[in-house]
Structure formats: structure tokens, C-alpha cells
Amino acid sequence: MIDRTGETRADIDAIYRVESRRVLATLIRLLGDFDAAEEALHDAFMAALDRWPAEGIPDNPRAWLVSTGRFKAIDRLRRRARFDAWSDAIADRLEAAPASTADAETGGEDAVEDDRLRLIFTCCHPALTPDARIALTLREVCGLETEQIARAFLVPAPTLAQRIVRAKGKIRDAKIPYQVPSRDELPDRLDAVLHVIYLVFNEGYSATSGDSVVRVDLAGEAIRLGRLLVELLPEPEAIGLLALMLLHDARRAARTSASGELVLLDEQDRSLWNVEQIHEGAALVERALHSRRFGPYTLQAAIAAVHAEAPTAAATNWRHIVALYDVLMRVEPTPVVELNRAAAVAMRDGPEAGLLLIDAILARGDLADYHLAHSARADLCRRLGRTADALASYERALALTAQGPERRFLERRIATLQDQKLSPRSKKEGT
Amino acid sequence: MFGVTEREDTVKYLCLIYDDESKWGTMPQAEAEAMMGEYFAFTEGIKKSGHYLGGEALKPTQTASTVRVRSGKISTTDGPFAETKEQLGGYYLIDAKDLNDAIQVAAKIPSARIGSVEVRPIQSFD
Fold this sequence. Notes:
The structure holds 2 protein chains of 2 kinds.
Chain A: H1 5-31, H2 34-55, H3 61-81, H4 85-95, H5 99-106, H6 109-123, H7 130-141, H8 146-152, H9 157-173, H10 186-205, H11 218-232, H12 236-249, H13 252-255, H14 275-290, H15 296-308, H16 318-331, H17 335-349, H18 351-363, H19 371-383, H20 387-400, H21 404-422
Helix pairs in contact in A: 1-2, 1-3, 1-6, 2-3, 3-4, 6-7, 7-9, 7-10, 8-9, 10-11, 10-12, 11-12, 12-14, 12-15, 14-15, 15-16, 16-17, 17-18, 18-19, 19-20, 20-21
Chain B: E1 11-19, H1 21-26, H2 29-48, E2 52-57, E3 65-70, E4 73-78, E5 87-96, H3 99-107, E6 116-121
């Protein structure tokens, strides 16, 4: 007899990777509780490891796992029921679960996908704090370990675990329902989900502090989440956000040099850009724009697409980019958008025009503590040959950021400018 | 818990209405009357939908007294528990399917547009 244990083990691992989040999402609905569902998921896979090597893998592993998990949960409640009558009552109700439940258990692809969407909307419920939404989504929807999430966000693991416990407590106590929001609630609720995905992506894309070597690939997780959401709920802004992430991420290899230093967009080696991802992103932008119900994510993605499709930095269509920023300013009139627009105007009309706009933003007191505002200002002053102003703004930017590569980039700029001050003949850089 | 185990159950929520009470004093009379009309219509609405359990408006915070008992001794001070920019001005006690349902009701309270409504589930001890 051939020993198939090792083979089955590998198959079970593969099934775990593909199915565990789906099984969990359905178990949460069936059991009505996150913690019970996690225990049940664990029990179900333990049972699979125990039985599948001998009995073979069932035809529908997902359905097997869901129903085994559910029975295991009922078992646990029965055992607990010896001490408390309440658990017994719940076990009774679970066993007498209505027919629709059993349908979803055994087949119904739609029902399973609905459960995944329910899980996303529940984890991203606006009644939870943004921090808790991110932690819960990465834990429950992406299946990351608490320690991995803690490390990714540079918070102590117990703090993060506490955040998740509190969020689950609020879901239970305030009775946040496990459901996909109704049509009229959807726009607001979808915004909350998109915001969580965007924050995860940004954290991965530009780590707020420290070096990023040992951290999980948050940008990759965010893109996976974005794909899942588009698959389950192809709303224009969900498509726009996925496009935005793909387009930014396509430049990942070119954003840092071999020694880990930051490389700005205009100095990046465009041959390192991921062409396939750019095509996919650009096609998604088109799709979202065609809906005519697009919003800020789609517009930002459209801007990223213009950058990504320029063969060289000099060939960038700044006119088009400024026009897109004008529209973006109408949907989302924030100081950061205004700053980015100013930088684009500087490229279209020259540094003087951009500097005027940035100084106006800073004069209002907006963005006074935002390091990118000061480094943008510094860059324009540098290009105008106003070395002292440039130095002052780079110093201000440096004082405001803790991120390793970002700091080193600013320090290099400062060093270059100081050299130029000493030898004034090379004052104007030939860029 | 949500889902199967409490499918038929509803939850009681207290909707605490906070707004800047000085606004009511400075509001033109027509506007104040319109607001009162909206409150009347809202209350009727949630009575019809079955959400309503109770609700009252409160007199302004200058009428409030705060009571504490320390070492068996009653101490009473003038004014509300905390001085805040928005003050507790009234409440509704509602019966809702879940938090989403409660949020939908709270969003229709007229003061939600000018102030805030805190939604808290009621603790039951049975």
C-alpha cells in the first residue's frame, strides 16, 4: 500500500489557503459569533487532517469543512451545557437551523460569496474605530496572524490583539449585523470599506516609519482585498481603487535603488515598471470612468495611469494631469489634493507658478506639518536657484518625517545644496 | 451575537441627543417651530414603524443639578456632569433589529443635522 499521507497533507494545506476564509465567513453566519467560528474552523481542519489521509478528500471539501465545523461547534456547546443551560439553548437553536442555512452549507456559490461580502462589511463597519477595522479585516478577511499585523503596523502585539477583542466585543454587544448593507446605505458603507483597503495599501506602500524589510507585504494584501471586492461587488469606485493600487504598485521595483534609497518618479528607470500591471490598471480606469459614477479613487487612478503610460518623464502629459486634478478638486477639495495639483501646475507652467500655489496653501496653515508639502516647496525653490529657501524647506521636511528612506533622500538633497552654496558657479542644476 | 441565535430578537437602544442648546435660544421662531414640527413627525413615524419605546426632551443644562454621595454624605452641585460644547438635550428609547437599523432611526432625528446622536445598546441583566 502506498502511503499518501504526505500528499494529502500538501492538498489540505492548499485547500486551507484557498478555502479557509470562505469557510470562516460562512461559519460566522451560521454560528453568529467570530470566536466560535474561529474555533470551529480550527476544529474542522484538525478533523480533515485526521480523516482525509485515510478516507480521501471529499468531493466538496468546502461543504465538508463547513458542516464539520458547525457540528464541532455544537459539540463544544453541548459539553459546555453541562455547566450552563444557556449554551444548551443555543445548541438547540443551531441544530434546528432553518433550511436556507443548510442550502448555503452544502452548495450555493452565491450564498458563500455573500458570506465573504458580509464579513468584509462587518469588519469595516463605521461604528468600529478605523484602527480596529484595519486589524479585524487583515485578521478575519485576509487571515493574517495577529503578530504579523502588529509588526506591520509597528504596534505591540498585545495592543493589536486588544484592538481585535474590543472590536469583536462591540460587534456582539452593540449588535452590528452580519449583512451586506441595503442599496441606500451602500455608498457610505462602501466608502468605509474602500478606505480600509486604501489605508492598508498606503501603509505597505510608504511605511510611516522605520525600515520595511521584515514586514508582511501589506500592499500585496490590499491588492488582493481590492480584487476580492471587485469580484464580489464591481462598483466603479472599488474598480477605481484597485486600478490605483495596481498602478502605484507597478512602479514598486523602480521606487527604491539597489541600496534601498528612494527614487522619485521623474528619475525612475521606467524599464523596471511592471507593464502587465499597468495595462491591467489602465483598463480598470477606463472601465470605472465609463460608469460615469466614479469618484476620487478613479480620478487618482486616472492620474496615475497618465504617469504610467508616459514613456519618459519629459513626455508626461501635464496638461491632462492638471485637468484631472481640477476635477478631483471638485469632488474632493482637500489641501493634499491642492498640493498635488500645485506640483502638476509647476510641471505644466514652470516652478514659479507652482510655488505661488504651494505658498498660498502653507500660508493658510494647512499642511504646515506635512513633510511632503515642505519637500515639494524645497524642490521648486531648488529649481528656481533659490538655494537658501530650498535648504530651509528641506530641513523642515526632514524634521517632520521618521521614515528611513525618505529621511536619507532629504539628507542627500540637503548635502547637494550645501555643496552648491560653497561653489556658487554650479548653482543651477542641469535638470 | 448576531445571526441564527438571536434571529427574532430585537435590541433596545438609547439615542442620546446632543446639540448646542444656545442655538435653540437664538433660532428664529419660525425655524424653531419647523424643527418642533419635524420632531413631532419623526416621533409619529417611529411609533408607526414599531421602533418607539419612549422619549423626552430635557430642560436646558442651567436647570441641571449633579449629585454625588461620598462617605455617606450627599453633595449637590449646580450644572451638568460635564461642561461640553454640545449638551444632552433629550433622548429616544427605541427597539431595533440591530445597530444598522438603530443608526437609520437615529439619522432621522432632526437634531442629527445640527448636533450629534449617541446610540447605546441597553444592557439587560436577565
